[in-house]
Specification:
Layout: E1 12-16, H1 23-37, E2 40-42, E3 45-47, E4 59-60, H2 63-71, E5 75-81, E6 84-89, H3 91-97, E7 101-105, H4 111-117, E8 122-128, H5 131-141, H6 146-158, E9 169-172, H7 177-191
Parallel strand pairs: 1-7, 1-8, 2-7, 3-4, 8-9
Antiparallel strand pairs: 3-6, 5-6
């Protein structure tokens, strides 16, 4: 069964990867270029985390407000991870309906639901890094203590991948951000 979005012309680029793999930096570096190309919009996430907590440019929201919006159908996608709530607003669906491509910072665990909702429209992208690179980035980020970093690294080793290798475009982000950005932009342009 095709999704309603597959007939609208816009594609949903669903970026996913371990926390610390560089998704936020990648999105920030692509924002200006994609805005100028006027064909791909980056959706902000609504997150129950203070705006000054660092990391991505997100809409900070309290849990009661998040739950109200979720119950009212104001999120196209919503999930919970590490006691934090994440949502993509329904504006992403409106952009797809208008024929824009949309790039979102998604969740590996939520991927099966996103794939079902956006059949024919979803383009999954996995940002991958080595455990050594991930440890270094998480340490530099400073949001987690060493025990939390080791827990994240152990989850990375056993993380379930709810997709087949051919289903997802993999971006190796062990090198420079400029190189990964160029790969992502080429991939998005090739889908148009």
């Amino acid at each position: 069964m095709a999704s309603v979005f597959s007939e609208m012309g816009g594609l949903l680029f669903y970026l996913m990867g371990a926390s610390g793999s560089g998704k936020d930096s990648l999105l920030d570096s692509c924002r200006q270029y994609l805005a100028e190309s006027a064909s791909c919009l980056i959706a902000h996430r609504y997150i129950t985390r203070p705006a000054q907590a660092g990391g991505e440019n997100h809409v900070a929201i309290e849990k009661p407000d998040f739950r109200l919006r979720q119950q009212s159908g104001l999120f196209a996608m919503a999930w919970e991870a590490h006691d934090t709530l994440y949502g993509i607003g329904i504006e992403a669906d409106l952009w797809l309906e208008q024929g824009f491509h949309v790039l979102v910072n998604g969740s590996r665990a939520y991927y099966p639901e996103a794939r079902q909702r956006y059949q024919g429209t979803l383009r999954p992208i996995l940002v991958s890094v080595s455990p050594q690179t991930l440890r270094q980035r998480l340490t530099q980020r400073g949001r987690e203590n060493s025990a939390a970093i080791e827990a994240r690294l152990s989850r990375l080793q056993v993380a379930e991948r709810p997709w087949q290798p051919d289903d997802v475009f993999e971006l190796d982000n062990n090198g420079t951000l400029a190189n990964t950005k160029a790969q992502l932009i080429r991939y998005i342009q090739a889908q148009e």
